[in-house]
Amino acid sequence: MMNKAIFLAVKDLRVLISDKGNIFWVFGFPVLFALFFGAIYSGAGKGPSGMEIAVVNEDNSEFSNAYISKLESDEALKIVNLSRDEAVEQVRKGKVAAALILNKGFGDGFEALFNRDEPKLEIASDPSRRMEGGYLQGLLAKAQFEALGEKFIDRQWMKDQINLWRRELENATDLDAGQADLYLGFIDSFDTLLTDVNDENFGAGFDGDILNFAKLDVSREYEGPVTAFQITFPQAMLWGILGCTATFAISIVKERTNGTFDRLRIGPLGRAHILAGKGLACFITCILIMCILSIGAKTIFKMPISNLLLFIPAAFCTVLCFVGLMMFICTLGRTEQSAGGAGWAILMIMAMIGGGMVPLAFMPSWLRSFSHISPVKWSIFALEGAIWRNFSLIEMINPCLVLLAIGFTSFLLGVVMLRRQED
Predict the structure, then answer these.
(1) Which site in 63, 159, 213, 313 is 20 to 30 Å from 277, CA atoms measured?
(2) What distance in Å separates the CA atoms of residue 414 and residue 329, rounded to the nearest whole number?
(3) Following CA atoms 24, 28, 33, 36 in sequence, which dihedral angle do they give, to the nearest 10 degrees?
(4) Contacts of 145 (CB under 8 A, 6+ apart)
(5) Which residue, 336, 244, 345, 229, is CA-closest to 285?
(6) Are 289 and 240 spatial neighbours (Cβ–Cβ below 8 Å)?
(7) Is 198 strand, coil or helix?
(8) How far apart are the C-alpha atoms of 51 and 60, rounded to whole Å?
(9) What is the pLDDT of residues 361-410, one digit of tens each?
């Protein structure tokens, strides 16, 4: 039986490479996918670049001008100074990501910055660019801290703030005498500190970095940073396997419609031989895709694979899973068009909810819960575990078992449905 299956597999491989279109979609497209998304992800750690925002400086104070200067010095932002009406209109038309409006009183000190009743800073953002909007808020807070940091070492500005607080406490009607005296005592002590401390020690050690933290690498025993192509190559491999799965599924339907399948059955070949040959050809092609991409990534992009011994079973289980899916997809229609349409629809949905198109982190939580049913998610997870997550053998068992279970179930279901259709 094995010799017959190998003979049929060789026949299917020769048919596959005879069509140049198949060669591109099976081998070329995954490479383009890896290059495209690798280039995109290469700048992901820096956040959006060149985000254009409109700034309206109605305050026009020393502090507001310093604040805008901090924003202009950030490479991630491109500042355009406009009037209020022009800025809001530019946001509405989608020409800028957001409009930043500094109202009068923005530079009046802490009272203006933290006044929730009358905010001195307004943001008009494009609702279709929420991710950029969230990133922008972080940049605005960073610039605000930096601008304030320069004020903290300005002795006269700090004294003016203390006098402002003292007047507010003396005029406050919602504090009893004991609380007022307590706060006034603290302010007086602070004022004394500003008066007595010498210029050399004033502001010493303060560099404007209010949030000081170190980054830790979560990849265990991995030497060097994780590159963008390490992150995107598992997705690229999956797209090549998806194309191979659809191609071989349609080839089975094509042989059934043009009579090739029946002619093979007339000869000394059983259904098991034919299906085994198709599965073996699909398996070999998928393995070739992963080998070509891996070798290319290693030689051209210098992409390391942290654990080659675990990459082999991860790739093996991934391919077996999609070989089983191929057998199920070929039973979804009696014509090439119906089987191809249904097959690609299923594969695209699996890719969408499994992280093949959009990273799982960007999906809403309710949609992320559906990713567990997608073999794409488990395949990417297993391949990442071997390429850069540096899984242990125990950690690799779970995704591999899930992939084998999906592939085995799909294969059995496909064989049963194919037998019923023939009967």
Answers:
(1) 313
(2) 7
(3) -110
(4) 208, 210, 211
(5) 244
(6) yes
(7) coil
(8) 23
(9) 567 777 778 889 999 999 999 998 888 888 889 999 999 999 999 999 99
Token pair recorded at residue 109 = 């000190």
Which residues are CB-neighbours of 413 under 8 A, at least 6 positions away? Answer: 328
> Which residue ranges in the chain fall short of pLDDT 50?
45, 205-216, 219-225
Question: Which letter does DSSP use for residue 121 in this model?
Answer: E
Per the CB < 8 A criterion, the answer to whether 389 and 230 are in contact is: no
**CA dist., res. 225 & res. 227, Å (int):** 6
The pair of three-digit structure tokens given for residue 319, joined into one six-digit string: 């391919």
pLDDT at 325: 95
Name every residue whose Cβ is closer than 8 Å to that of residue 69 and which is 6 or more positions away in sequence.
Answer: none
Alpha helices (H) along 19-121: 20-23, 29-41, 62-72, 84-92, 110-113
As a whole number of angstroms, the distance between CA 7 and CA 277 comes to 7
CB 169 within 8 A of CB 187: yes
**Token pair of 171 as six digits:** 């005029």
Question: SS3 of 187, please?
Answer: helix
Q: Which amino acid is at 406?
A: I
Edge-first strand order for the sheet with 121-125 is 77-81, 51-57, 98-102, 121-125
Q: Assess contact for 304 and 230: CB atoms under 8 A.
A: yes
Pairing of strands 51-57, 77-81: parallel
User: Do the beta carbons of residue 355 and residue 371 sit within 8 Å?
Assistant: yes
Estimate the crossing angle of helix 375-387 against helix 228-257, to 10 degrees. Answer: 140
CB of 347 closer than 8 Å to CB of 397: no
Q: Which of 338, 327, 313, 237 is nearest to 282 (CA)?
A: 327
DSSP class per residue in 76-100: TEEEEE--HHHHHHHHHTTSSSEEE
- Picking from 129, 57, 47, 137, the residue whose alpha carbon sits closest to that of residue 93 is 129
